[in-house]
Amino acid sequence: MTVEEIREKLRRKAVIFETGGFQPENTIGVSWIGAIKWKRPEDELPKDKDGVEMLPLAMIFTGNLEYVPEEIRDVVLCNVFISPNIYDHLIDMEGYYAVQTYTTLDGLEPCSWINGEIKAFPLKPQLVEDDFPMWDGGMDADIEDEICAMEQRGEIDYYEDIQTQSYSMHKVGGYPAYIQSGGWTKEYEFIFQISSDEKAQLNIVDSGSFYFFYSTELGKWDMQCDFF
Asked: In terms of CB atoms within 10 Å, which end of the chain has fewer, N or C?
């Protein structure tokens, strides 16, 4: 297998987000970190498994992005919430986060759900065509074995010849930009990540990220977190 063949097998599209730097229009379609601006009339802030009201983490409009994973092709909006006590439950975060998805924008109303612990900023999307996994973080075992063999023969260096650009920011699609070694159950597929953000004053433990996965088979979300 050549370097280009490996790159072709691993390459994924993703949409990365720039935080702030522009004046947002107060209309449907603008994604945010630290705020949720649109909801159904009947929606309320979700509560964690201990009955504590969650905080809005992000609002991601997926219906107008240039790329989204196949698993959410019918979803146009994801509203993401975390418990204020999420860091007490990093080993098992189930019940301490929520992702509300919408398949239509019809009937949505403006709201002002703000996360008081971080600054709210609009997010500007940008399509990238060349997202690759971090080493030991999402590639199939046969490709990993081939890369290891090529590195042992001195033919390539993974971070010089394959993964030459790391997108360690808020993004939809591509691969989770793991800091530690990571992976996920094959029933699930990686959908998006929310990362530590200096401008928004969001520090996930120690410059870490939240990774969100979805299983169409189970109809269920899963979440991971890692950090330095």
From this structure: C
Any residues with CB less than 8 A from the CB of 161 and at least 6 apart, and which? 3
Residue 24 has pLDDT above 80, yes or no: no
pLDDT digits (tens, 9 = 90+) for 31-90: 999 999 999 999 999 999 999 999 999 999 999 999 999 999 999 999 999 999 999 999
CB 117 within 8 A of CB 84: yes
Would the pLDDT of 182 be above 90? no
Spatial separation of the C-alpha atoms in residues 212 and 192, rounded to whole Å: 5
Nearest of 83, 81, 87 to residue 221 by alpha carbon: 81
pTM of the model: 0.94
Q: Enumerate domains of the chain plus CATH numbers.
A: 3-226 (2.30.320.10)
Helix 141-152 and helix 3-10, axial crossing angle in degrees, nearest 10: 150
Question: How, if at all, do strands 35-39 and 77-82 pair?
Answer: unpaired
**b/e sequence 155-193, b meaning 16+ C-beta within 10 Å:** ebebeebbbeeebbbbbbbbbbbbbeebebeeebbbbbb
Q: What angle do CA 81, 86, 89 make, to 5 degrees?
A: 135
Q: Rounded to whole angstroms, how far apart are CA atoms 52 and 212?
A: 21
Measured between alpha carbons, how far is 183 from 177 in angstroms, rounded to an integer? 11
140 pLDDT tier (thresholds 50, 70, 90): confident
